[in-house]
Design brief:
Blueprint lengths: L11 E4 L7 H10 L9 E5 L1 H10 L6 E3 L3 H7 L4 E5 L18 H16 L5 E3 L5 H6 L7 H9 L6 E5 L4 E4 L9 H4 L2 H17 L7 E5 L14 H15 L3 E6 L7 H4 L4 E4 L2 H11 L5 E5 L5 E4 L16 H21 L1
Parallel strand pairs: 1-2, 1-5, 2-4, 3-4, 5-12, 7-10, 8-9, 8-10
Antiparallel strand pairs: 6-7, 6-11, 11-12
Helix pairs in contact: 8-9
């Protein structure tokens, strides 16, 4: 699939996510703050009846309007929340705080429609609301998650890479959702090189950083201390760093992870390449839990997502914080604009 060349204003396409989660609430809260926060226009790819129910339950009474094009969504956004309705309606209706395997087809359909809108030139990027993976697996979904499915839908070349972005830092875990006990055996030089190359390309295209600087974390305490506390730094990580440097990328490391994320280092690195999930996410979420955004690198489209789950425990209570979702909207809009300039 090839992306059309469109220069007119386009909305962001926001997927429904888990219907019983907080996705509808944070979307409606963000739309209600659209003027105050100067948010880019977005269109909800959703069941309009579900959004109407969520709006009434939470006392928002937000006006909703069905749209069929990006231009219509942009012109509608100021006065009503534009909704690109799905072919699959939610039957039975969603209940806040609970999942229903019968909703799986609609949840997956929202991802497909949002992606198609981007390829058709009706939307600039995709912002995904959180999904409940177990519920989708029970409905027959055969992908580990959003990222892998989007890679298949868009025909991405190579494995996509996950970047977490906050106002303080950008972090990229090389290994992601695997047991800690398996990290050392699954960490490879090739995987680090791939993550580093994709990260550098994103920093150039999506963030307009001409000469990106990447700091690489070690795996072991004290970065292995010359092989006395583990040999992965010498045998796996250093060869990857040398390859990335040969590519012309500014890379430092491997650094001891316990001293890598303080402010002086953050001022001199555009992204941190980490060896496993928690090594990357703990510092980012500790510094700024509410504003983290998940950005998928290596796709031919821009995709972001709030850095939290479906929050079934608070769905329907009005307590959901929309900040991460709002930041996901802003980041997707920024990256899409930067990428268009990079390709022009």
């Amino acid at each position: 699939m090839s992306l059309p060349d469109k220069t007119h204003p386009l909305p962001l396409a926001v997927t429904m996510g888990e219907p019983g989660g907080v996705g509808g609430e944070i979307l409606l809260k963000a739309w209600s703050q659209r003027h105050k926060r100067a948010l880019p226009p977005f269109v909800a790819v959703d069941d309009i009846a579900r959004l109407s129910d969520v709006s009434k339950q939470l006392g928002f009474d937000a006006p909703l309007r069905a749209v069929s094009t990006g231009a219509e969504a942009v012109s509608t956004f100021g006065k009503a929340l534009p909704v690109a309705e799905l072919d699959e309606t939610l039957a039975p209706p969603a209940t806040a705080g609970t999942t229903n395997v019968a909703h799986g087809e609609a949840v997956i359909g929202a991802i497909e429609v949002a992606t198609q809108w981007v390829f058709e030139g009706q939307a600039s990027a995709v912002v995904t609301n959180p999904i409940q993976k177990q519920s989708l697996y029970e409905a027959g979904f055969r992908y580990p998650g959003h990222t892998e499915y989007l890679a298949a839908l868009t025909g991405a070349e190579g494995a996509p890479v996950m970047m977490l972005v906050s106002p303080q830092m950008r972090v990229v875990p090389v290994t992601i959702h695997i047991p800690l006990a398996d990290v050392a055996s699954q960490l490879t030089t090739q995987a680090i090189v791939h993550a580093g190359r994709v990260t550098a390309q994103s920093l150039r295209d999506d963030f307009e950083i001409r000469s990106p600087r990447i700091a690489v974390a070690g795996l072991n305490p004290h970065a292995g201390e010359g092989g006395t506390i583990g040999e992965e730094e010498q045998s796996v990580i250093l060869p990857a760093i040398e390859t990335l440097r040969a590519d012309g990328i500014k890379v430092t490391g491997p650094h001891p992870a316990d001293t890598l994320f303080h402010v002086q280092v953050r001022d001199n690195a555009d992204a941190f390449l980490c060896m496993y999930h928690d090594q990357a996410l703990i510092p980012l979420k500790t510094l700024d839990f509410d504003h983290g955004v998940n950005l998928t690198l290596g796709l031919p489209i821009v995709r972001s997502s709030p850095d939290h789950g479906t929050a079934l425990d608070i769905a329907g209570t009005g307590k959901a914080n929309p900040e991460s979702f709002i930041e996901a909207l802003k980041l997707a809009d920024l990256c899409a604009a930067n990428r268009r300039r990079a390709l022009s």
